[in-house]
Design a protein that fits this description.
Strand order of the largest sheet: 6-7-8-3-9-10
GO molecular function: ATP binding; ATP hydrolysis activity; transmembrane transporter activity
Protein name: ABC transporter
Number of domains: 1
Strand content: 25-35%
Pfam family, one: ABC_tran
Order of helices and strands: EEEHEEHEHHHEHEHEEH
Largest sheet: 6 strands, mixed
CATH architecture: 3-Layer(aba) Sandwich
CATH superfamily: P-loop containing nucleotide triphosphate hydrolases
Radius of gyration: 18 Å
Distance between the termini: 38 Å
Organism: Neomicrococcus aestuarii
Keywords: ATP-binding, Nucleotide-binding, Transport
Shape: globular
CATH class: Alpha Beta
Helix content: 25-40%
Structural class: alpha/beta
Length: 242
């Protein structure tokens, strides 16, 4: 059993600009996220929630502070080490999908394995694509898919590698309510099975699937909600002007 948190941050700060134009995107944020937990990060636009997630995942560089993934300090890690860590231990679902336009849906889903010279688990791939309703669309390229279908391909690509930590930025933002509930249910069951999920969302209903909601305002963590419900999350967001 891992004693270190899945993800932790110590006094994490991120600033842009200088002088009067300085923007404090993160202000000395500290947190520990346990293995197998499902955490949602919420807050008003500009509160720093996406910046926090990108820094935690090693996609952006913090101005100060330390970040650990599974006990490994990633702050200052060489690019090659960080790339290997992200490829093998971390998964991402981006708002912008980041699909390769020349590859079909199946090839996009299998891309992390290709980059790592490995073969995907066929059973898991079939399970995930069936859950996401993609089995009839696997031969289609991104431009032949709707926005919701592209989102589901991006989610499948992140899930199929079975990462220890999955970062998801508004993973249900382009999905209809039925598909959204299916994806959130799958994320919930993945966390119950030991995967760590860190999700940025603005939707209280999506956040209610999490074990904990972290609420941000002006670059700081201002609230933490255990066992969130739609009502408790809505109330907390109202207090921070979201």
């Amino acid at each position: 059993m891992n004693e270190a948190p899945a993800v932790s941050a110590h006094r994490l700060s991120k600033t842009y600009g200088s002088g009067e134009n300085t923007v404090h995107a993160l202000r000395e944020v500290s947190l520990d996220i346990a293995h197998g937990s499902f955490v949602a990060i919420m807050g008003p636009s500009g509160s720093g929630k996406s910046t926090l997630m990108h820094c935690l995942a090693g996609l952006d560089t913090a101005s100060a502070g330390e970040i650990f993934i599974e006990g490994r300090l990633i702050t200052g890690m060489k690019d090659t080490e960080l790339t290997e860590l992200r490829r093998r231990r971390v998964g991402f679902v981006f708002q912008a999908f980041n699909l390769v336009p020349t590859l079909n849906a199946r090839q996009n889903i299998e891309l992390p394995f290709l980059l790592d010279s490995k073969r995907p688990n066929a059973q898991r791939l079939n399970e995930i694509t069936a859950m996401l309703g993609l089995q009839e669309r696997l031969s289609h390229k991104p431009h032949e898919l709707s926005g919701g279908q592209q989102q589901r391909v991006a989610i499948a690509r992140a899930l199929v590698t079975e990462p220890a930590v999955l970062f998801a930025d508004e993973p249900t933002g382009n999905l209809d309510s039925t598909s959204g509930r299916s994806v959130l249910g799958f994320l919930r069951s993945s966390a119950d099975a030991g995967q760590t999920i860190i999700m940025v969302t603005h939707d209280p209903a999506a956040a209610s699937y999490a074990d904990k909601v972290l609420v941000m305002r002006d670059g700081s963590l201002v609230d933490s909600i255990e066992h969130p419900t739609v009502q408790s999350v809505t109330g907390a967001l109202a207090e921070v002007g979201a």
